[in-house]
Amino acid sequence: MGLQCGIVGLPNVGKSTLFNAVSNNAKAQASNYRFCTIEPNVGLVDVPDERLKALAEIVIPNRTVPTTIEFVDIAGLVKGASKGEGLGNKFLANIREVDAIIHVIRCFEDDNILREEGAINPIGDKNIIDTELQLKDLESVEKKIAKIQKQAKVGGDPKAKHEYDVLMQCQQCLSDGKNIRSLNFSKEDKLLFADLCFLTDKPVLYVANVDEASILTGNTYSEALIKMAAEENAQVIVLNNSVEAQISEMEEEDKALFQSEYGLTEPGLNRLIRSAYKLLNLITYFTAGVQEVRAWTIHEGWKAPQAASVIHTDFEKGFIKAEVIAYDDFIQFKSEAACRDNGKLRIEGKEYLVKDGDIMHFRFNV
Q1: From its phi and psi, is residue 263 left (phi > 0), alpha (psi between -120 and 50) or beta?
Q2: Could you write out the DSSP letters of every residue in 71-126?
Q3: What distance in Å separates the CA atoms of residue 245 and residue 258, rounded to the nearest whole number?
Q4: Rounded Cα–Cα distance for residues 349 and 241 (Å)
Q5: Cβ–Cβ under 8 Å, residues 180 and 174
Q6: Cβ of 221: how many Cβ atoms within 10 Å?
Q7: How far apart are CA 100 and CA 70, in angstroms?
Q8: Is the Cβ–Cβ distance between 104 and 236 less than 8 Å?
Q9: Which of 19, 26, 205, 364 lies 20 to 30 Å from 10 when distance is taken between CA atoms?
Q10: How does DSSP assign 162-188, residue by residue?
Q11: Is 89 exposed, middle or buried (0-12, 13-18, 19+ CB in 10 A)?
Q12: Among 237, 172, 162, 234, CA closest to 202
């Protein structure tokens, strides 16, 4: 589906190190100087899902294909970026292109790693990024208000007046130092400013980059970040980005031993990738046959024809019906034939809302 999560943060907080760890087909340069990342790096990342493995063990297909999500490593932002400081304009333009934000925040002490913002301060660092995004959004909304103000006030157009009222709420929110995503607009109202691609309306997931000793327990810095995020109904993933990068480069047989030394049951990256997937309101359905067992990404709330379209657009155009088996039923009965014999294979039509984990087979005619 081409959905992207942009990894952002101040310079030298571990963005590129995290990108290197999560990406399975791209490596970003990670160095101890500002603006090491200039052009955004893009990596396609497999979404870890034990259900895919379980289905493959039953079906024994010729190949198994996981679903994926894209991560983008974006240049570090500095104070004043909204006015063009550093690589601000490029940075902000790159954020505008992504669907969700992974905000990496430094939560450890290390005199060897350059830091121009003073003492370690996760909340202060978070606020620097927020402020720059808010200022850029404020600039965008004020330009649009100026365009429709006369039409809304003089012309008396009800639609224009409603749009003006919504934009004024956005302006007030940003002027108060808050993010657009904190406003509870309806889907219809959000369409009124969709063309502005508000930076602060994008969903956000925070990564607390901690020292090795704090991988399992966190520390006072990450705890402060978690408390702050809870007020925004946002999630924090606690990681040591360097350790995760090391794990990602190991052979499978070495990973378990290395993880056990830190008390980890799985790479922390798995939690991050799954959380990013959820952040975008994505779910997975499966197709399962001898040729291929495959995971497919769709938005939560999609109906069967929309779900079919990610395989091929013809599947949506000529949709007739979908044969559906719940994941737990397939695991219990071990085959499509057994599910059918036990009444666990359902025939669904165009209005069926696909559920996470459904095993599906589409019938279509073009």
Answers
A1: left
A2: EEE-PPP-TTGGGT-TTHHHHHHHHHH-SEEEEEEEES--TTS--SS-S--HHHHH
A3: 12
A4: 46
A5: yes
A6: 23
A7: 11
A8: no
A9: 26
A10: HHHHHHHHHHHHHHTT--GGGS---HH
A11: middle
A12: 234
Q: How many CB atoms sit inside 10 A of residue 95's CB?
A: 24
- State pLDDT tens for residues 149-185: 888 776 667 888 999 999 999 999 999 999 999 999 9
- Helix 241-248 × helix 268-279 angle, to 10°: 100
pLDDT tens-digit map of 337-350: 999 999 999 999 99
Task: Quickly count: other Cβ atoms within 10 Å of residue 234's Cβ.
Answer: 17
Helix H or strand E segment including 287: strand 282-288
Tokens 């010729």 correspond to 62
**Residue 234 corresponds to which tokens in the numbers above?**
């946002």
- Beta-bridge partners for 363: 321
> What are phi and psi for residue 342, nearest 5 degrees?
-100, 15
Give 110's contacts (C-beta < 8 A, 6+ positions apart): 211
Q: Burial, 304: exposed, middle or buried (Cβ in 10 Å; 0-12, 13-18, 19+)?
A: buried
| pTM of the shown model | 0.87
Cα–Cα distance, 262 to 83 (Å, whole number): 43
Q: Between β-strands 282-288 and 4-8, what pairing exists: parallel, antiparallel or unpaired?
A: unpaired
Distant-in-sequence contacts of 302-305, Cβ < 8 A, 24+ apart: 302/353, 302/354, 303/350, 303/351, 303/352, 303/353, 303/354, 304/348, 304/349, 304/350, 304/351, 304/352, 304/354, 304/360, 304/362, 305/350
Contact 28, 42 (CB under 8 A): no
pLDDT per residue as tens digits for the range 322-335: 999 999 999 999 99
